TrEMBL record:
It comes from Cajanus cajan (Pigeon pea). This is Reverse transcriptase zinc-binding domain-containing protein. It comes from the Eukaryota. Residues 69-135 form the Reverse transcriptase zinc-binding domain. Pfam families: zf-RVT (PF13966).
Amino acid sequence: MNKESLIAENGSFDGSSWNWALVWRRPLLLQREIDLAHELQEIIELFQPKVHMEDLWCGGVDEVVMLALRRIWKTKAPRKSMVFAWKLLLHSLPVHQALVRRGVLFIHEDCVFCNNMDEDVTHLFLHCDVASSVWYYVDGWVFHHVYQVLWKVNC
């Protein structure tokens, strides 16, 4: 895949919904390449371009987050854990606040664990007392770097 390609070159709209159709520079021959392409497809399905919006480069993710994102893929953790950590850093997990923003849920509610604050990624993984006790035991594996980066980004 060409890293410099535009979104518009890798899919098309069917009415108002976007269909990804990634363009590869060469045919994918090895099973490993095909598997990685499927994983990439699953990840980018979370991102849906909007009709009538121009492609543009943006720097929404700062250097600290980019460094952590690169480190995630170099760990020896299971791939599902790495994808989870990647989604966590990009704030793309389906927490309550994100589901309301995407129009999946319509009622804004507090955290299901503590009922003290809105359930967003930062609260759920950093500030919720109930969830923090769980993450304390997980810390030191994949989430060690993620936890540190989230703390720096959100403080």
